[in-house]
Design brief:
alpha/beta; Rossmann fold; 8-stranded mixed sheet; 4 helices; 8 strands
Length: 171
């Protein structure tokens, strides 16, 4: 089952979107209101995934919650600004960049950049059995074993996810 969630990335009602929302403002916007430069919006998605996904084994509060980026970083300072001063389950949020040869296993969320298209399946495979949420905007990422694929269709950002395959419904 693939779930697609529609997100307005570019206002298509004839209005010009504000291309530079401050990160704190973006974090307060509803899903329907979220718009701006592509990777600014994607940074907020990563932040929200950290807030709403549960990891199997809790970590001590003095261990930072790490959002990693592997490959040529497209976020500029957006992701750093978005997570600055934030916490997840009493753990401070931080970002970390991984270059070839560095092991990204110590992060909680790993964004695999377009530059790693040829290695994406291997990166995901190397993380099997680890508690790392893999996210990318590489076409077909979910088919390569990735957990969340971000894509744009008709000026709308969408999320394709295999998370619901293993989701537990709680009442």
């Amino acid at each position: 089952m693939i779930v697609a969630v529609l997100i307005t990335a570019v206002e298509d009602r004839g209005q010009d979107p504000d291309p530079h929302h401050p990160p704190e403002e973006l974090k307060r916007l509803s899903v329907e209101e979220l718009r701006g430069p592509e990777y600014q919006v994607k940074a907020v998605f990563l932040f929200n995934f950290a807030q709403f996904v549960s990891w199997p084994s809790p970590q001590p509060s003095d261990t930072p919650f790490v959002i990693g980026i592997v490959g040529d970083d497209p976020f500029e300072s957006y992701l750093d600004e978005t997570v600055r001063g934030e916490k997840v389950n009493h753990r401070s949020l931080t970002t970390q960049r991984f270059r070839r040869g560095r092991d990204p296993r110590n992060c909680n969320i790993l964004f695999i950049c377009q530059s790693e298209r040829d290695r994406a399946a291997q990166i995901v495979s190397n993380l099997k059995g680890r508690s790392v949420l893999t996210v990318s905007d590489i076409d077909g990422f979910a088919d390569l074993g990735g957990m969340i694929e971000l894509f744009t269709e008709k000026n709308k950002m969408k999320v394709s996810s295999k998370l619901l395959r293993v989701a537990e419904v709680k009442h």
